[in-house]
Amino acid sequence: MIENLTDISVEQLLTEAHNMLFDDYRFITATCVDNGDETLDVIYHFDKDLEMKNFKIRVQKGAEVPSISKIYFCALLVENEMKELFGINITNIAIDYGGHMLLSDDDLESPMLRQQITIERKGDK
After folding, report:
1. What is the band of 124 on the pLDDT scale with cuts at 50, 70, 90?
2. Can you say whether the dihedral through the CA atoms of 30, 54, 22, 24 is positive or negative?
3. Which residue, among 114, 116, 117, has the nearest Cα to 36 in the 3D structure?
4. Nearest-angstrom CA–CA distance, 28 and 46
5. Sorting pLDDT into bands at 50, 70 and 90, what band is 2?
6. What pLDDT score was predicted for residue 58?
7. In the Cβ-directed half-sphere of 27, how many Cα atoms lie within 13 Å?
8. When comparing pLDDT for 36 and 28, which is higher?
């Protein structure tokens, strides 16, 4: 369980990021979890004087999430990573690598998403 975790909506994300900046919190990172259904949890981690604050948004796979990189420039790295590895549609990243910061054209698309594999057995049609 994560301490100091607050659930927020996608619409509140930029406001909360601005609030953290104005309150002198550092952006640490963001983490993403595939819930195994049609949703992902994205948790944004902030720190000030060894006090962590965390904000969690739950998004539908394919839904748009605004980038916080215009507020915390360093967020562009983890946002590009989540975009590539989980397929999150993060919009307006300060520098968007277009899905090629870590992955090449030959790599599996969104490799961190839980994949559903269908296996056909002999005789199945």
Report:
1. low
2. negative
3. 114
4. 5
5. confident
6. 97
7. 25
8. 28
C-alpha distances in Å from residue 118, one per residue of 35, 48, 58, 108, 124: 19, 47, 27, 17, 12
Residue 96 lies in a domain: no
**Spatial distance between the Cα atoms of 9 and 40, rounded to a whole number of angstroms:** 13
The CATH number of whichever domain residue 57 belongs to comes to: 3.30.460.80
* Structural domain contains residue 62: yes
Average pLDDT, the chain: 88
For residue 119, how many other CB atoms are within 10 A of its CB? Answer: 5
Helix (H, G, I), strand (E, B) or coil at 74: coil
Only one residue has tokens 């915390």, namely: 72
64: closest CA among 34, 93, 36?
Answer: 93
Number of domains the chain contains = 1
| Residue owning tokens 């006090």 | 51
